[in-house]
Amino acid sequence: MRPKILITDRIHECAVEEAKKFADVDLRYGISQDELIELIKDYDALIVRSGTKVTREIIERAENLKIIGRAGVGLDNIDVKAAEENKIKIVNSPEASTISVAELVFGSLISFIRNIHKANESMKRGKWEREKFMGNELYGKTLGIIGFGRIGREVAMRARAFGMKILAYDPGITVEDAREFNIEYSDLENLLRNSDIITLHVPLTEETENMIDKRELGLMKRDSILINIARGGVVNEDALYEFLKEKKIRGAILDVYSEEPPRDYRLIKLDNVLATPHIGASTDEAQINAGLVIVEKIRNFFR
Predict the structure, then answer these.
(1) How many helices and strands in the chain, by DSSP H and E?
(2) Total Cβ atoms within 10 A of residue 118
(3) Is residue 231 annotated as a catalytic residue, yes or no?
(4) What superfamily would CATH give domain 137-271?
(5) Catalytically annotated residue among 61, 114, 158, 278
(6) Which one from 17, 207, 260, 285 is the annotated catalytic residue?
(7) How is domain 4-93+284-302 classified at the CATH fold level?
(8) For 19-62, what is each residue's pLDDT tens digit?
(9) Fold: same for 4-93+284-302 and 137-271
(10) Which of 54, 144, 202, 294 could be disulfide-bonded to 191 (CB atoms 3.0-4.6 Å)?
């Protein structure tokens, strides 16, 4: 029998068509929690993105559910423990957006250090302010990468092309691993003290929540830049606001926030913050890949 798949968040149409080749597919974008609780018992697989919250109540009502596919990186919106207790497999597609996120790091960083975003706004107001937008080069700067998984390694490859020195901190790698990538392994404190630019690429877990707090920010150089295109909760936003407001660090580049969309925009409105609305995976290529990868993993599961 063909498995029945329920898709509750929009994925690329080509991925939906692939799913239809081996399964009966129902699209219910924007479904409410109450509706999902009622419907879930009829399905063998569920595909979501970040919009649908897969709670314990939903999982316990899922009499036939065998697998949950998260088209994307994080599993914050899925009760993983409840799924494990009910022997429901969870798969996601973190590899799909790797390149898009790595490229956003440098797109945002170059815009920030060369004041491109501000110069553009000035020009659109009919002004010619060349002297106002003096910037810096990336060449010769030290980039500290916290989290050296798929994205961290892609960031390192691009940093080398800019002639940057690279420090990496990740408890999951060794000094020998670092040598393979022609980078220097560092402990967290050394990385914070010696990096001109620090970029975060870690998941949000109990261990990483608020891993960048007052103490860590206090170790950073006064002219350093913090980039968070990982998860909002890994940085204490109140502490970051104070350090940026008082110019204790040069600036921050943010694509993720502890609450999305944010209710409090005071951090985002600071002049030394470049902010985007969680667009790390917002490329055509990443969206296509996210859907296709998750559908293929579900196809393989049922095989």
Answers:
(1) 12, 12
(2) 17
(3) yes
(4) NAD(P)-binding Rossmann-like Domain (3.40.50.720)
(5) 278
(6) 260
(7) Rossmann fold (3.40.50)
(8) 999 999 999 999 999 999 999 999 999 999 988 999 999 999 99
(9) yes
(10) 144
